[in-house]
Amino acid sequence: MTAARTVAPLLEARAVSFHRQDEPVFVPLDFQLHTGELALVEGDNGSGKTTLLRMLAGLLHLGAGELLWRGEALQRDLCAGDILFLGHQLGLKADLSPRENLRVATGLHGTRDGTDIASLLAEIGLRGYEDEPVRRLSAGQKKRAALARLAMLPATLWLLDEPYANLDRAGIALVNDMLERHTGAGGAAMVTSHGMVSFHGGEPRRIRMHG
Amino acid sequence: MSRPSLTTACAAMLRRDLTLAWRRRGDIAMPVLYALIVTMLFPFALGPEDTLLQRIAGGVVLVTVLLAMLLALDAMFASDIEDGSLEQLVLAPQPLALMLGMKILAHWLTIALPLIVISPLMAALLHLPAPVIPVLLLALLLATPLLSLLGAVLVALTVGTRRSGMLLALMLLPLCVPAVIFAAGAVAAAQQGLPWLAPISWLGAALVLAVVLAPLACAAALRIALDS
């Protein structure tokens, strides 16, 4: 056992499941996620990947089982803002520009140390589109604007539902790069995807879902 | 890592909703035009008789403002649910009730305030005596936020149902009865030269209660709506 393993995991699930109309959506899950780790949630369509992430984020109630945050029972008030969720709906206002959307997010969450909106938007591939309403951006550019929020806000755990959807090859590389930097800086992430994640920072932990 | 203060977060939220309303400022004009046109219909329907119009003026202005607000009410949370902003708001490290309170405030500023601004014109169309107009304004200043708050709770409860606009009207209008009675009562009392402070105080008390409770109820209802 290495020293890292004696530290309580960032997030631990014990026999976690979710029921919809008394039917379990997925088979009870056990997993641990440590800081610096990336977990890949795999499963077929309808196997409950999105449901799992929404439940971990706190949007859905815990169906059964137990969730531990840093070794103690997870309390939403204590870890609010420490968990970021990016789902199919990106949470961007179509009438605001990427810059204005980021300003709202940082107004609510605060800013990650050493980031600023202008350079981040340029880095993420939205140079020249900073002040364009999100409505006029392409699907991939919208996704990038939503990814900028992840990079901008201070948080430990990222829950990303299909972060690669709509992105071109450079965008996919960008997501991998962001994940690497986030886990390298002591963060952790759970990602649902249908494969094709080329993560350089070691083999990601895999969580297999069964409907 | 420090979280922004509540003031910063409230300011960010208020600024966001006001900017969004400004980007769609055509939508702000619509309830105002609606209220003006409805008020103008009364003299046409009832005849230009001064005493009759004067007697009904206060009530007509109040009910018209109420109906105009109802038109814009069901849009309060709809776009935020559609684009996922509400999910992000629920996950933000700020009290959800307070953030929703800011949304309701922004909604009141963009929908009800323009109506209050044109209400003296509406009152003048119906020959309401000028000395009564300050009382009418005071009644509207207290009654409209009350309606926004009550409406917000009902909108939060009916999100996700189809044809929620009609359902909303059916649910909200009965709840408005006390507000209409007290507001119209104050205006009628002022018109007859009677003391009008009591009904205004009742409105104020109801508003204080709603300011405290409605955002909490909204937050609970929206959390339930997302949790499915």
Count the strands of chain B?
0
- Which chains share the greatest interface? A-B, 34 and 32 residues
Helix-strand pattern of chain A: HEEEEEHEEHEHHHEHEE
Rg of chain A (C-alpha, Å) = 17 Å
Number of helices of chain A: 7
Provide the spatial order of strands within the biggest beta sheet of chain A. 8-9-10-5-11
Going by helix content, strand content and strand pairing, the class of chain A is: alpha/beta
Q: How would the global form of chain A be characterised?
A: globular
Give the ordered list of helices and strands of chain B.
Answer: HHHHHHHHH
Q: What integer is the average pLDDT of chain B?
A: 92
What ranges of chain B have pLDDT less than 50 throughout 5 or more consecutive residues?
A: none
Distance between the termini of chain A: 33 Å
What does the average pLDDT of chain A come to?
86
- Please bin the fraction of helical residues of chain B: over 70%
Count of structural domains of chain B = 1
Identify the overall geometry of chain B.
Answer: elongated
Query: CA-to-CA gap between the ends of chain B?
Result: 33 Å
CATH topology of chain A: Rossmann fold
Helix content of chain A: 25-40%
Pfam family, one (chain A): ABC_tran
Keywords (chain A): ATP-binding, Cytochrome c-type biogenesis, Membrane, Nucleotide-binding, Translocase, Transport
Protein name (chain A): Cytochrome c biogenesis heme-transporting ATPase CcmA
InterPro entries (chain A): AAA+_ATPase, ABC_transporter-like_ATP-bd, ABC_transporter-like_CS, ABC_transptr_haem_export_CcmA, P-loop_NTPase
Describe this structure in words.
The complex is a heterodimer of chains A (211) and B (228). Chain A has 211 residues and is an alpha/beta fold. Helix content of chain A is 31%, strand content 22%. Chain A is built from 7 helices and 11 strands. Chain A has helices at 3-6, 49-57, 76-79, 98-109, 117-123, 139-152, 169-184; strands at residues 11-17, 19-20, 23-24, 29-33, 38-42, 64-69, 72-73, 83-86, 157-161, 188-192, 205-208. In chain A, the strands form 3 sheets. A 5-stranded parallel sheet of chain A has the order 8-9-10-5-11, with helices on both faces. In chain A, strands 4-1-6-7 form a 4-stranded antiparallel sheet, with no helix packed on it. Chain A is globular. The two termini of chain A are 33 Å apart. Chain B has one domain (6-226). Chain B contains 9 helices and no strands. Chain B has helices spanning 6-23, 25-46, 50-73, 78-82, 85-91, 96-125, 133-158, 164-191, 197-226. In chain B, helix 3 (50-73) runs antiparallel to helix 8, helix 7 (133-158) packs antiparallel against helix 8 and helix 8 (164-191) runs antiparallel to helix 9. The radius of gyration of chain B is 19 Å and the shape is elongated. The two termini of chain B are 33 Å apart. The mean pLDDT of chain B is 92. The interface between A and B is medium-sized, with 34 and 32 residues. Chain A: Pfam families: ABC_tran. Chain A: Keywords: ATP-binding, Cytochrome c-type biogenesis, Membrane, Nucleotide-binding, Translocase, Transport. Chain A: Residues 11-209 form the ABC transporter domain. Chain A: It comes from Rhodanobacter ginsenosidimutans.
